[in-house]
Design goal:
globular, 12 helices, mainly alpha, 300 residues, 2 strands, two-stranded antiparallel sheet
């Protein structure tokens, strides 16, 4: 059953050099990274040639950021899947975009709203005003869809999926979560605690969500809506980035409760609620028997 759950397996007729240089997990990750960097450099050069810079109108800058954050990783992923793995794109089927994407968006909205509700009940979150003219479109393109699409492709579609094919589910969860937390260490207001919280509450949650559903649309929907709700709806910094929300809010109390300047993602409330969801997904995976063993145990 585990073999059927995996998106890719090395063709039995592949010669030895292809097994190592094209189809092995490290090779495919390296190929994706090479295409990602190459496409990013090319796109940035095109933007520079077109004169996109600090003086460009805000919407054009946001669209450029969306291209870099979301469409470039998507293009690199399509090249990996179609040219190297040569398989159907089951995790990103166009016909499932709307139902699975909307389901993920609903989950993300409910989950972060639960975090805010718990902070409000604890006396940490307060709404001070309502701002109807908050700039939402740029936040949706960059912080929401840009981060949700691009990061899920890189960390779940590539890193988690390919490591799972080689080392199994447990190592894939650990490695993808650690990398996901590590890339947030350079964000404004980040600490070792905030990066650890991101790794546990988001890295493990999104990894198991992909493992259970084998759908990147759902992961993207949860991720994008979590970010959008946090910044644009509730007015809370998103991973340290300043937010301008419809609700002008403030948070009080110790950083372990409020999340401090990094945002609610560094709060024990978010950590606890997301961990409960992660445990629920883990129980489901264990009962279903979908945990993938390392490749050497599968081959044996």
């Amino acid at each position: 059953m585990q073999q059927q759950r995996l998106a890719f397996s090395t063709p039995a007729t592949a010669p030895r050099w292809q097994r190592w240089l094209l189809f092995s997990p490290p090779a495919r990750i390296a190929i994706f990274v090479a295409w990602l960097v190459g496409l990013m450099v090319t796109v940035q050069f095109v933007f520079f040639a077109l004169g996109l810079g600090k003086d460009t109108p805000a919407l054009q800058r946001d669209l450029a950021q969306f291209v870099v954050r979301a469409l470039v990783p998507l293009a690199a992923y399509l090249i990996l899947v179609k040219q190297i793995e040569r398989r159907p794109l089951t995790e990103l089927e166009p016909r499932t975009l709307l139902p699975q994407g909307l389901l993920g968006a609903l989950i993300g909205l409910v989950l972060f709203s639960a975090v805010v509700a718990a902070l409000w009940l604890a006396g940490s979150y307060r709404v001070e005003a309502i701002r109807a003219d908050a700039p939402w479109l740029g936040a949706l393109l960059v912080v929401g869809l840009g981060a949700g699409i691009g990061e899920e492709i890189m960390f779940r579609g590539v890193l988690f999926r390919i490591v799972e094919e080689g080392l199994g589910t447990w190592w894939a969860l650990a490695i993808s979560a650690l990398f996901f937390g590590a890339v947030h260490i350079g964000n404004p207001g980040a600490t070792l605690w905030s990066s650890a919280a991101i790794a546990i509450e988001a890295g493990l949650l999104f990894g198991l969500l992909y493992h259970v559903t084998r759908s990147l649309w759902i992961c993207m929907g949860v991720h994008a809506t979590w970010n959008f709700a946090q910044g644009t709806i509730y007015g809370i910094p998103v991973s340290g980035s300043r937010a301008e929300g419809w609700l002008v809010s403030s948070r009080s109390g110790p950083d372990w409760l409020s999340g401090g300047v990094f945002g609610a993602e560094a709060s024990v409330v978010a950590l606890a609620l997301c961990t409960l969801c992660t445990l629920g997904l883990l129980m489901f995976a264990l009962r279903r028997g979908s945990i993938v063993p390392p490749c050497w145990r599968r081959n044996a």
